[in-house]
Design a protein that fits this description.
Blueprint: E1 8-13, H1 16-24, E2 33-38, E3 43-49, H2 51-55, H3 64-70, E4 75-77, H4 81-96, E5 102-104, E6 109-113, H5 124-139, E7 143-148, H6 151-160, E8 169-171, E9 173-175, E10 180-182
Parallel strand pairs: 2-4, 7-8
Antiparallel strand pairs: 1-6, 1-7, 2-3, 5-6, 9-10
């Protein structure tokens, strides 16, 4: 593998717990939703907020009462960890259909090394699009992908570029002269 550029991706499921709830409940489409403590007692903290809730000022880790104050029509789902674990395992199996080098980072983030397999799917960007499409079709969850040559840069590409792009994919290439990351050639505003 000497001289071969590594292809490493960080796959991050967008608003994972909230996305799973929306996938399980189509009637929640187009409505702001959070996963949080006890909806009956209006207590606990927000564990995950969908993009519609975030657009109304709701943030992860805030008290549920504060979130409801910002967004009175907020749907509050009780956490169902076993369901989220099952979705995570299903998504892992999807990733493993692209490479056997999958490393969980958290319940909703995983590293994928496609160095040896990306060419089978038309290259890293096309593989990323295929991964996103397959995960969305099979689970209803949107996935952001950071692409680079190592885990750190893949994480940076995901956090700094993919989250701001409508296609939810960002690439970070090490610049040989400054050893830094360059932005993708066509950055786009965030639509998440």
């Amino acid at each position: 593998m000497a001289g071969k550029q590594r292809i490493v991706m960080l796959a991050d499921c967008q608003s994972f717990y909230a996305s799973v709830e929306k996938a399980k409940h189509p009637e929640y489409e187009g409505k702001p939703l959070v996963v949080a403590g006890d909806p009956e007692r209006r207590s606990g903290i927000v564990l995950a907020a969908c993009p519609l809730a975030k657009a109304r000022g709701v943030t992860t880790a805030e008290r549920l009462g504060e979130a409801l104050g910002k967004c009175p029509d907020l749907i509050v789902a009780t956490p169902r960890m076993q369901e989220y674990i099952e979705y995570s395992l299903l998504i892992t199996r999807i990733y493993e259909s692209f490479t056997d080098l999958v490393e969980p980072y958290s319940i909703d983030e995983q590293f994928l090394d496609l160095t040896e397999t990306a060419r089978l799917f038309g290259g890293p960007e096309e593989a990323a699009r295929m991964i996103q499409k397959r995960v969305l079709e099979q689970t209803g969850v949107y996935v952001r992908l950071g692409i680079s040559t190592n885990k750190l840069l893949a994480k940076m590409a995901c956090d700094n570029y993919a989250k701001k792009r409508p296609d939810r994919a960002g690439r970070c290439r090490p610049d040989a002269s400054s050893r830094s990351c360059r932005t993708p050639s066509s950055p786009a505003p965030c639509s998440c």
